[in-house]
Amino acid sequence: MSVLTFVVIGLLLYWSLKKFMKPRNFPPGPPSIPILGSLPFMPKEAMATGILWQHFKSRYGKVMGMMIGDQPVIGIYDFDLIKEAYSKEEFSARPNSELHDFRMLGKKRGIVMNDGYGWKVHRRFTLKTLKDFGFGNASVEDGILEEANHICDHIAKKNGSPFKAEDVFNVGILNIMWKILTHKRFDLEDPRLANCVRAINGQFSSDRVRIVLAMPWTRHFFPEMSGWNDWKKFAITMQDMTKQILDEHEPCFGPNHEPLDFITAYKEEAKRTGDPEFNDRDLQTTISDIFVASSDTTAHTLSWGLLYMILHPDIQKKVQHEIDDALLGREPTLEDRARLVYTDATLAEIQRRANIVPGALPHRVSKEMKLGGYTIPKDSMVISSLYYVMHDPDYWKNADQFDPTRFIENGKFRKDERFVPFGIGKRICLGDTLARNELFVVFIRLMQRFNFEASPDHPYPKEEYLPSTVMGPKPFHLRAIPRS
């Protein structure tokens, strides 16, 4: 073998070790090998790092480091360290990913997976505009209540027959945001809403596509096995739908020429500022981001809510009694929250136990940083275990039990800084207030109008997750019995 061959092999080995092995002072974690990184040493549910906090924290401590392919990945299993990290600008970027770039029409756009200047201007504009439309305060509750009643009417038509919760909530919750974005609402059985829900769920529910996230090259060689084909199909469906929305949209103004929907406001902002960040492709992605962030999460939380009411019928009755005594049959308003302490606490406990986004969305470190005494390399992906924060047995008494009273103190709702269903720090969900209001109004109307119970014709439901980025309960059947 020639000297040149030895040199080439040596350089390849050096490059491989440097690229795929852990950097110096990297947090402890599973071993790593070239090409695959730590994947062969991970448990079967490895990508659900949020839920598997017991596996990782017991072995490696509060900060864990691993390699997924050549990508450094950091898992944080400590509330104080998560707060410290996510309060810093350097920990607030999003991962560079061909998968997400495809969804965002070729590069980082919009809000959810964007970062830098583009993210800042779109988040600032979106928060201000949605607030102007009543997003996050009482003026939007009429739309929420209208949709809550449509959901209840839809359930009532089933006449006590078994149904799946997710078949009802997804389109109903999506409709609330659809009206804010376009100034229109659709019938719950409109196929456009159903197609949108399928596209959203498809992007979140594919376990196989995590292979592409870990090793992007697999989409070229194993497009079917890696889940790339299915994921791309759902992404294209969403892109086509948002483009159709923009093509069909007509500007909508009030008597003082104020925009009456988000799309109109966005296009007016583009004219006013001349900022190239405000363009049709970024608007498409922003619409998609808002749909995804506002509908799937709230719908899954409501599904979990009905599951817990079935599993704990005594709590369901106590919630109903409080609502009946306080409201005397009238529809709820957001001002009723202070009078419905046990109901509000029950909703908080549903969110704590379900914890539908257990690892939050991944962050990226924009430059080399220190955390917990370890070196976090530039461009590392960072995952924080919100599941651990809200299930830490050293903090929450009887953490694995469903107990709304943990959020009640001296007859009032008790806020807790470790109750973080919408995230922590600079990237906290911008729709948190709307989501809380939706949950409050829709859940109360459901409790007012129905008693929920398991279907006798189907397996009794269990508290089991459906593995996904946004984790709803495993599909279950239930019955809604009208209350007198």
Automatic annotation (TrEMBL):
Keyword annotations from UniProtKB, A to Z = Heme, Iron, Metal-binding, Monooxygenase, Oxidoreductase, Signal
Q: Which GO terms describe its molecular function?
A: heme binding; iron ion binding; oxidoreductase activity, acting on paired donors, with incorporation or reduction of molecular oxygen, reduced flavin or flavoprotein as one donor, and incorporation of one atom of oxygen; steroid hydroxylase activity
The scientific name of the source species is Tigriopus californicus (Marine copepod)
This one is known as Cytochrome P450
| Keyword Metal-binding among record annotations | yes
Q: Which range is the signal sequence, renumbered to this chain?
A: 1-18
Which cofactors, if any, are listed as required?
heme
Q: Which GO terms describe its biological process?
A: organic acid metabolic process; xenobiotic metabolic process
